[in-house]
Design a protein that fits this description.
Layout: H1 3-46, H2 52-61, H3 63-83, H4 88-121, H5 133-165
Helix pairs in contact: 1-2, 1-3, 2-4, 3-4, 4-5
Amino acid sequence: MSQNDIDKFRRMCGQFRWLAMFMVISVGALLALMAWVAPLLLLLFHKASPTPAIILAVTIQNLPAVCYLFGVWSIGQAMGELARGRLIQPTLASALRRVGIALGVGGVTSVFVVSNLIRLVQHGKGGYLHFDVPGMTLGMIGGALFLQGRVVDQASRIQSELDEMI
């Protein structure tokens, strides 16, 4: 790989980092805004006062998205590290583990936690689990990414041992 290719790769990583930051900030702001706008819309259109339970329910429904945004933030952080010249293998292992945890927790939260917390807030209305195929899929992908991060980390340690022998 020529120095020109390396510079181009680092520049692209830096651009992707800014894209990830923009996404996290803009979507995070929209989620925060929705937690306050939804009750106000209820007040305007249905003439019902927004109760703390409604605000809490909207916030609870956004919990998986917060986990997914952490995964995007982790990807952006890894791209920033690559743009600054950090080695790919340790950056990849760390990013895979963090993104895997974020997707796994978001998927589990989507399927099990949100529905049960909503049941608590709304006094027993709703089911015990939400059949959310995308959430289940993201949870499984998250688990696989976490395990892949451990594999990459282990390969790095084995490579170091082999390098010491030579």
